[in-house]
Design brief:
Helix content: 25-40%
Radius of gyration: 28 Å
Strand order of the largest sheet: 16-17-18-19-20-21-22-23
Strand content: 15-25%
Mean pLDDT: 83
Signal peptide: 1-32
Pfam families: Beta-lactamase (PF00144)
Shape: globular
Low-confidence stretches: 1-37, 169-173, 555-568
Domain Beta-lactamase-related: 62-363
Number of helices: 20
Largest sheet: 8 strands, antiparallel, barrel
InterPro entries: Beta-lactam-related (IPR001466), Beta-lactam/transpept-like (IPR012338), Diverse_Enzym_Activities (IPR050789)
Number of strands: 23
Keywords: Membrane, Signal, Transmembrane, Transmembrane helix
Length: 621
């Protein structure tokens, strides 16, 4: 409004001059949205073409994703930039979304900032990627002690074999309550779960530990190091972490569930190195220009060339045909060209960046909804501007199909909390079910053909991850893992399959409920008959406490978006209820109760113990 008022006061001759200048201006400039930098093309793509693409593929997806807003940024190696925003700042804020002045929660894209910090320190000789992490964690020791050394490189590639840790801590309401990394890790250190150096198991814990290593190696807090060594040198005036010097408005989104959308208050996390940074879309463009230019931005070497080369070059995969997991980003291969990427999933926003070094181009896509649009928009971008990279897969099948690869595979991921993974287990499709067919294999309904021994590829439209599968065998020749591009899954027997677990958990819960109903009915009958009410009431109380503990431990994800967080107080409540329930059942068994009530107490203890054993066995507790 301010600009419009100023224009209304211009002299008539100046208005005429401006009008003629605008008429003679290039069409691309006339089409440019506020916040777009000058430049006719970006990596030889005309601005008009990018504008049409953004309208057709980003703006058009707002309705389906129910997002209040969305943004896209495209940059090239020369620093030319296209940036466009659609929609509003939030579901209850009609302010037009602005690529320069509104912050976006980049979530797990923060991990690459953390990786760059580690690589800077390695380049300066302050640490080595082959260091045992326990020599770099300020005295922290992972349990159980005495395992094989976990290196910094293992953490960077998500191959450390450790568990996840809660992202939100006890009493954390806002940034003022934010604990130091050292204090939080002292009480919430991840555990060793498998030998390091194996398959990829994405976990926020790995990058939280890396953040702590940055602190011990540099002598600075994680937030200060990233801000002073990466964000500020990249000219980022608004970027940072919650609770710091953040003053710019933050884009707000919605969580979408069947039939409704919900707004949620912003959640600050204690695992900041794994996913808590914010920046504007324009600032993300600065970052991507640096990523295309070997660490340089506007003539300054922000990140050393050696560090960037390591970031891109040291990738692990189960097969050369797979891109694999690098020292931070994921690498995929399309028509022989590498593409590096990393996504970020927040409660109410989704985004991802993609670097195409052979094409001298990078882009970022984000929207403020729990329904992502980034990968679909990216695939459409490739299909529109780089058809060979977006071409459909047409693998040539070979034979014979290995008969022993069929079975159930469990994804090696520790992203979610215990409660989140429990509810994921109860949902169909939580595992990779490999079925053998006449012309290939089927994995959760998607068809793959054999292209080499133990190597399979899907035909049809490409996807970011999952087009090619590699089955790995142990020294005895038995298949033990299934590898995607940046994920792995362990083959499990029938006793460990999701189907068996659902049956066992369901049966145990049904048994506890049956015992509760039985004990409650016995208590009611005792009141009517005038007989002793204490034994059946105690039995009912024991069942109720044990069921209450189970609900407390596993009910968190019913809130929807909080499936990704773990709240220690809730688990402490669960443990307390379980203990009280066990004491009540034990008192019943040891007392002089009627035989039937004692039997109910024993059954309650056995069922509860079996349930807790299953939770531990499946690594939910």
């Amino acid at each position: 409004m301010g600009d419009m008022k100023r224009h209304a006061l211009l002299p008539a001759w100046l208005k005429l001059g401006l009008g003629l200048a605008l008429m003679c201006a290039p069409l691309s400039t006339a089409l440019a949205a506020p916040g777009i930098d000058p430049g006719e093309t970006i990596a030889d793509i005309p601005r008009e073409a990018l504008d049409a693409f953004a309208e057709a593929e980003v703006h058009a997806r707002l309705s389906a994703s129910k997002a209040p807003g969305a943004m896209i940024v495209v940059v090239d190696r020369q620093g030319n930039r296209y940036a466009r925003a659609f929609g509003t700042l939030g579901p209850n804020d009609a302010t037009p979304l602005d690529v320069r002045h509104h912050l976006f929660r980049i979530a797990s894209e923060t991990k690459v900032l953390t990786a760059l910090g580690i690589l800077q320190l390695a380049e300066a000789g302050q640490l080595s990627l082959d260091d045992d992490i326990e020599t770099r964690l300020g005295g922290l020791r992972l349990k159980p002690e005495g395992g094989a050394p976990i290196t910094i490189r293992h953490l960077l590639q998500h191959r450390a074999g450790i568990s996840n840790i809660p992202m939100v801590g006890s009493g954390l309401r806002d940034a003022r309550d934010h604990p130091a990394l050292a204090d939080y890790l002292a009480g919430h250190a991840p555990r060793r779960m498998r030998a390091p150096g194996g398959g990829i198991a994405y976990t926020n814990a790995a990058y939280t530990l890396l953040g702590r290593i940055i602190e011990t190696a540099s002598g600075e807090t994680y937030e200060n190091y990233i801000a002073s060594r990466i964000l500020k040198p990249l000219g980022m005036e608004h970027a940072g972490f919650p609770g710091g010097s953040i003053t710019a408005p933050i884009a707000q989104g919605v969580f979408v569930s069947p039939g409704s959308t919900t707004t949620f208050p912003a959640v600050d996390t204690v695992t900041r190195p794994s996913g808590d940074a914010m920046m504007t879309a324009h600032e993300m463009g600065n970052f991507l220009v640096m990523m295309l230019n070997g660490g340089a931005y506007q003539g300054r070497q922000v990140i050393g060339r050696k560090a960037i080369d390591s970031l891109y070059g040291e990738c692990w995969s189960a097969d050369p045909s797979l891109g694999g997991r690098c020292l931070g980003p994921t690498r995929i291969l399309r028509a022989g060209s590498p593409i590096y990427l990393h996504g970020g999933d927040y409660i109410t926003s989704m985004s991802a960046w993609y670097v195409l070094p052979d094409q001298d181009l990078a882009l970022w896509i984000g929207n403020t909804s729990s329904v992502p649009i980034d990968n679909d928009v990216f695939e459409a971008f490739l299909k529109r501007f780089y058809p060979p990279l977006g071409a459909e897969n047409a693998p040539k099948a070979t034979s014979p199909i290995e008969e022993d690869i069929g079975g159930t595979y469990r994804i090696n991921s520790q992203t979610m909390s215990a409660s989140g993974r429990f509810f994921e287990l109860l949902m169909p499709g939580s595992e990779q079910i490999v079925e053998i067919g006449a012309s290939g294999i089927s994995v959760n309904g998607r068809h793959y053909v054999r292209i080499a021994p133990d190597l399979y590829q899907a035909s049809g439209p490409p996807t970011i991850d999952g087009d090619t599968l590699r089955f790995r065998r142990d020294a005895e020749g038995r298949v033990f893992e299934l590898h995607f591009n940046a994920r792995s899954a362990t083959k499990i027997g029938a006793a460990g399959s999701a189907h068996a677990a659902r049956f066992v958990f369901g049966g145990l819960l049904a048994a506890l409920l049956t015992l509760l109903v039985f004990s409650t009915a016995r208590t009611i009958m005792a009141f009517r008959r005038g007989t002793s009410k204490a034994p059946p009431a105690l039995s009912a109380t024991a069942c109720l406490l044990l069921i209450g503990g189970t609900i407390a431990a596993l009910s968190l994800p019913t809130a929807g978006p909080f499936v990704m967080f773990g709240f220690p107080p809730l688990f402490r409540v669960a443990q307390g209820l379980w203990v009280l329930g066990g004491i009540a059942a034990a008192a019943l068994v040891r007392g002089s109760a009627p035989r039937i009530d004692r039997a109910a107490g024993i059954a309650t203890m056995v069922v509860a113990a079996a349930f807790i054993f299953m939770l531990v066995r499946w690594e939910f507790l």
